[in-house]
Write a structure and sequence with these properties.
Elements: E1 2-6, H1 20-34, E2 38-42, E3 52-53, H2 68-81, E4 87-90, H3 94-98, E5 107-110, H4 120-129, E6 131-134, H5 137-141, E7 150-151, E8 171-176, H6 183-193, E9 197-202, H7 206-216, E10 224-228, H8 232-241, E11 244-247, H9 257-264, E12 269-271, H10 277-280, E13 287-289, H11 293-302, H12 308-316, H13 321-337
Parallel strand pairs: 1-2, 1-4, 2-3, 4-5, 5-6, 6-7, 8-9, 8-11, 9-10, 11-12, 12-13
Length: about 350
Amino acid sequence: MRIGIIAPPWLTVPPQAYGGTEAVIDSLARGLAGLGHQVLLAAAAGSSCPVEPLPGAHPPDPAHMGRGQDELRHVLAAYAAMESMDVIHDHTLAGPLLRLAGPGIPVISTAHNRFDAGTLPVYRAIGRCASLLAISTHQKSEARGVEVGGVIHHGIEAAAVPLGAGAGGYACFLGRMHPDKGVLTAIRIARRAGVPLKIAAKMHSAGELAYFRDVVGPELGGHIEYVGEVGPQEKFRLLGDAFALLNPIQWSEPFGMVMIEAMATGTPVVSTPRGAAPEIVADGVTGFIRDTPKSLAAALARCPELRRADCRAATETQFGARRMVDEHVAFYARRLSSKAGADVVPV
């Protein structure tokens, strides 16, 4: 197939540091090309994903993330260049709503955000313009009044991730410096369990900087350490040397790439039962799902009992990149075979 993929315009594909959506797009594009499909990728200039790039892309600008005119400029150029594609997989919000695809070209849209009061009206409209994919069963369960064509979990190329021994003697937290991600809860759980905690977090926006200054910074010291924002190699080294990823999310996260990234290094995950976490973490096998500070601290202390090989195996099968790519190919094919792309067959 000839497949056009449109990434958001604010970060490169793959991201140089934090950027779960861009990491998933990179794995999908690589996997599709590896199966022999022709892939045209519309992404920010400087992207290193080894597929055909859209010419004339603009430089990434994380400071403009969410800025409408940047996204509109990006998708207009992308659709104009994708008139010969068989399928367009659009990861932006604006693109599907503009209905720019040529006659007979199915448009697939992945919902990377939670379905809530703010996003539901947007996704209801997208569901009428494109075939909408959810990234977890829990996310789809919140899609009230939204037509969702299927659920495809994210995947990771585990073979490209170094397997760690978990010998660093610490737990780690990896995410954004935001209350929803549970960094303050992670600090308190680590203290309660009496284990060192290393925190790596994206901290760019004014809100993230203020949260660190006012809330998280004063909690640092002793065995609680902030190590900054880390790139891909540093990230996997941090995760692989940890005996556990402490991920006590405080919101209904649609997926949570950091959990399968940790598992790929062999590191089990301790998380709250929010969002997609129970779909990702097999309780007592690849980590623990608990809902109180006391039970989370007790679970953290038990992580060295778990087999790191089981964590790695889960990413090679259930959350492998090849499984993710195969499910997308099957979905694209069904859309192409349906009447003028009108019928959506759930995955």
